[in-house]
Amino acid sequence: MKGKIALITGASRGLGKNAALHLAAQGVDIIGTYNSRADEAQALVAELQQLGVNAVMLQLDVGRSEGFADFAARVEQALQSFQRPRFDFLINNAGIGVHASFAETTPEQFDLLMNIQLKGPFFLTQSLLPLINDGGRIINISSGLARFTLPGYAAYAAMKGAMEVLTRYQAKELGARQIAVNILAPGAIETDFGGGAVRDNSALNAMVASNTALGRAGQPDDIGGALALLLSPGAQWINGQRIEASGGMFL
Asked: What is the CATH number of domain 5-245?
């Protein structure tokens, strides 16, 4: 995939960072975004450059759609340093987790999740469409929680379910440009997402492992590898699909 450019939101840490490293190892140049941790973002740029690819990190709050036109202009400017007018892959990865029961979820929590998990990727992708190459790929991120249910994630999972429907519509409507759109649904992964509960809470980790066919919680490499696979040349005919990478959780 050498010569391709991927734009990854939320690339400075967690699964976004892992995806950036996996793609860079295959020669893909990276445009990443970060929200507030500029030091982590610049550290990743240095790490990616050591892998021999071009990389730049841009600040973006995906929960503020009024800033997307300005962000698209900054992406267009950044592409000049790559000597390319457009990029090839968009991974809508940035997100947050809110844990609250259905009965106790507040309108503020709901709106926060909607702005970041649904409205954000909807209108960010719309804003970036002119900068995506025909024949490119878009990957949205869902969650295993859109298939199985665990108390405390009603609002979060509802947004991910909406993203799964949106993915099919994007695949249908962008097909004329030969842009394939899929959505990857990770299971429980050992990252700092949600306060690092799966990674740091031994009881929760054991529960996940006991309910997963492959007998363990997921690692960031499991998801970075899956994302790279979906962007590989051999996956070009996969379109409009939900792919779960959970090790077989709650089968």
From this structure: 3.40.50.720
Q: What is the mean pLDDT of residues 205-223?
A: 95
Instruction: Count CB neighbours of 99 within 10 A.
Output: 15
Catalytic residue among 34, 142, 153, 246: 142
Is 143 considered catalytic here? yes
Which residues have CB under 8 Å from 16's CB, separation 6+?
A: 8, 9, 10, 32, 91, 93, 94
Q: How confident is the model at residue 193 (pLDDT cuts 50, 70, 90)?
A: confident
pTM tops 0.85, yes or no: yes
Q: What SS3 state is found at 71?
A: helix
Who has greater pLDDT, 194 or 16? 16
Choice among 12, 153, 156, 246 that is catalytic: 156
**156 catalytically annotated:** yes
Q: Do 199 and 191 meet the contact criterion of CB atoms below 8 Å apart?
A: yes
Which member of 12, 127, 143, 246 is catalytic?
143
- Residue from 4, 17, 119, 160 carrying the catalytic annotation: 160
* Boundaries of every domain in the chain: 5-245
Cα(95)–Cα(120) distance, integer angstroms: 9
